[in-house]
Amino acid sequence: MRACNTINGIQACINASAEGSHAECVALVSLASLLGKTGWEEQLQPLDNVDRQEMAEGEEEVELLEEMACVLQYLEWQEGWWRMRGLCLGWEGIPEANTEGLHAYAEHQAAL
Fold first, then answer.
1. What is the pLDDT of residue 2?
2. Alpha-carbon distance 99 to 85, whole Å?
3. Are residues 60 and 10 in contact, defined by beta-carbon separation less than 8 angstroms?
4. Which residues of 23-51 are buried (b: 16+ CB within 10 A; e: fewer)?
5. Backbone angle region of 37, left / alpha / beta, with phi > 0 → left and psi within -120 to 50 → alpha
6. HSE toward the beta carbon, residue 9, CA cutoff 13 A
7. How many CA atoms does the CB half-sphere of 79 hold within 13 Å?
8. 29 and 45 in contact (C-beta within 8 Å)?
9. Per-residue pLDDT at 57
10. Where are the domains of the chain?
11. What is the spatial distance between Cα 56 and Cα 13, in angstroms, rounded to a whole number?
12. Nearest 5°: phi and psi at 89?
C-alpha cells in the first residue's frame, strides 16, 4: 500500500510538471511570435508520455534507494545494539553459563 501511495504521489508530481511545462511552452510560443523570435521551437520539445514514464521510473528509483539507505542505517544500528548486548551489560545475576550463551547469541545476531 505504501508503495502504491508513493507511486501515485510521484505520478501526480509528474503530471503537474508536465502541465506546467506545456503552459510554459504555450506562453513561449505566444511571446516568440510577438517578439519575432523564431527557430527555437525545434530545440524545445514538449514532453510526451514516454518522457513522463521515464521521469516516474527515475523518481521511483530514487525513492527506493533512499529507503534502502534507511534500512542499511537501521541494520547498522541494530548490529551495534546486539554487540552491546553481547558485552553482557545488564546481565547481572544471570549464571555465567547462561551469559556465555547469551553472548554467543548476541554475536550471531550482530553478524546477520
1. 65
2. 10
3. yes
4. eeeeeeeeeeeeeeeeeeeeeeeebeeee
5. beta
6. 9
7. 8
8. no
9. 83
10. 1-47, 50-112
11. 9
12. -70, 130
Instruction: Supply the pTM of this predicted model.
Output: 0.51
Residue count (the chain): 112
Instruction: Tell me the per-residue pLDDT of 66-96, one tens digit each, with 9 for 90 and over.
Output: 899 999 999 999 999 888 877 766 677 778 7
Instruction: Give the pLDDT score at 90.
Output: 65
Q: What is the 3-state secondary structure (H, E, C) of the chain?
A: CHHHHHHHHHHHHHHHHHHHHHHHHHHHHHHHHHHCCCCHHHCCCCCCHHHHHHHHHHHHHHHHHHHHHHHHHHHHHHHHHHHHHHCCCCCCCCCHHHHHHHHHHHHHHHHC
C-alpha cell at position 27 = 506562453
How far are the Cα atoms of 55, 76, 77, 88, 106 from residue 102, in angstroms, in the given order? 50, 20, 19, 8, 6
The list of the chain residues with pLDDT below 50 reads none
